[in-house]
Amino acid sequence: MRLSRYFLPILKENPKEAEIVSHRFMLRSGMVRQNSQGIYTWLPLGKRVLDKVNAIIREEQNRSGAIELLMPTMQSADLWIESGRYEAYGKEMLRITDRQERAMLFGPTNEEVITDIFRSYVRSYKQLPLNLYHIQWKFRDEIRPRFGTMRSREFMMKDAYSFDLTREGAEHSYKKMFTAYLRTFDRLGLRAIPMRADTGPIGGDLSHEFIILAETGESEVFCHRDFVNFDIPPEDVDFDSAEAMQDVFAKWTSVYAATDEMHDAAVFDALPEGERLSARGIEVGHIFYFGTKYSEPLNAKVQGPDGKEHTVHMGSYGIGPTRLVPAIIEASHDENGIIWPRSVAPFETIIVNMKAGDAACDGVAERLYEALTNAGQDVLYDDTDERAGAKFATADLIGAPFQIIVGPRGVANGEVEVKDRKTGARETMTVEAALARVA
Ligand code: ATP
Ligand code: MG
Ligand code: MG
Ligand code: MG
Fold it and tell me: How far apart are CA 135 and CA 203, in angstroms?
């Protein structure tokens, strides 16, 4: 992408409304724009990051055996009345009446819709286990939307729903998602800690929140320091093996971790001082096993091997992609801007041409741009005639892992500079060496 032809509305000033660093940098770098309270447009730079986050989520969901579909954002109230949640959900649900006076709503979650799909098609235990997911907009009329897309009213969620014949099967499904989540957050450059959680309006009796430690987090959390060093399950972990899933689950639940609602001070305080970690955290994912809470009222049954009808056991599993983007920024930035992990960087390399219009500089910059683009990299070429200082500030702000700086003095010697955004280290090298460095 050539910056001269891109749409990158950078803000020079710090927006007054932004209270936390991720919100500030997302506005300043032109990733998002508020449309109305808690409702955002994802501008091109932000859209790139969101797409990469979703791609990783999707890969790990698919790897675990979950199957993608796409349910609507608008739902009829009927199913919610049937499940008994229509009144119970309260004011967070945006209720709408259509022109035929039918009660509709903008889905805050999808247990009812998916259970209806399930009961319409699945009749036999032979079709189980089944896990269906989608990545779709949700709306919750949050009483206090804030921190940009961290807590917005319209937000994206990956929500998966598992169906099993037995509780035992459902627990295996739960552990599969648990494992997929550990891998997902790790690939996003985050250390997310699974903490026993309250189940809230979703209901149920087994639940973990995946929490990222950050000073600006809204939850108060307590956990063992060992979580920092636990190994992430490998790519080839066997999701079909109940034993392998149990091993992962056992390891990652072997030491203390709880949010404030579930906190047991007596147990936590008994840990040696050096092993205790009490901090603020951001909830980026939440998984639930809730048995027959929805399958019972909605009558989702299958025929078992015994020839009898069985109400299916269900779980639901959420991740918030539009919250993850600011969460990654909270975890990885400095005073100059964002430091993207490569896996989700909107651009992996930014080529800064310090003297656009100079034939020698243009030649080298174009050559780099072509080589990296052909190699399949996401590269931004700053070919504008801004002054060098402004270009450096923009490159740091939008936070690509590498910058290649092309200036007249270096080019005269056949050299360019490579800057590592994370360490700030700058090194002069040949064009070939620079290409190898950022490869
Ligand atoms: P919170 O406690 O932050 O209000 P929640 O517990 O209500 O979140 P869940 O119903 O567990 O949320 O939804 C699953 C995931 O969706 C959350 O873990 C979070 O990542 C994301 N999410 C929920 N509400 C929002 C929101 N208002 N804005 C952005 N993401 C959200
Ligand atoms: Mg909430
Ligand atoms: Mg919560
Ligand atoms: Mg939750």
Answer: 22
> b vs e for 206-223, b when ≥16 Cβ sit within 10 Å of the residue's Cβ?
bbbbbbbbbebbebebbb
Instruction: Mark 21-59 as b/e (b = at least 16 C-beta within 10 Å).
Output: bbbbbbbbbbbbebeeebebebbebbebbbebbbebbbe
How do residues 155-176 score in pLDDT, each as one tens digit? 999 999 999 999 999 999 999 9
Q: What angle do CA 357, 363, 367 make, to 5 degrees?
A: 135
Give the ligand whose atoms come closest to the C-alpha of residue 323: 1
* Three-class DSSP category at 41: strand
Ligand 3 centroid distance, CA of 83 (Å)? 22
Domain shared by 22 and 101, yes or no = yes
Are 212 and 275 in contact by the 8 Å Cβ rule? The answer is no
Best residue among 91, 94, 157 to mutate for probing ligand 1, ranked by most atoms within 8 Å of CB: 157
Rounded distance, CA 292 to CA 220, Å?
31
As a whole number, the mean pLDDT across the chain is: 96
If you search the block for the tokens 């349910």, which residue do you land on? 71
| Spatial separation of the C-alpha atoms in residues 415 and 405, rounded to whole Å | 10
Both 177 and 102 in one domain: the answer is yes
H or E segment and range at residue 421: none
pTM for the whole structure: 0.97
Q: Is the pLDDT of residue 202 over 90?
A: no
Same domain, 358 and 311: no
Q: Which ligand 1 atom lies nearest to the CA of residue 219? A: 2
Q: Please indicate, yes or no, whether residues 428 and 382 belong to a single structural domain of this protein.
A: yes
Domains of the chain: total: 2
274 & 375 share domain = no
What ipTM does the predicted assembly reach?
Answer: 0.99
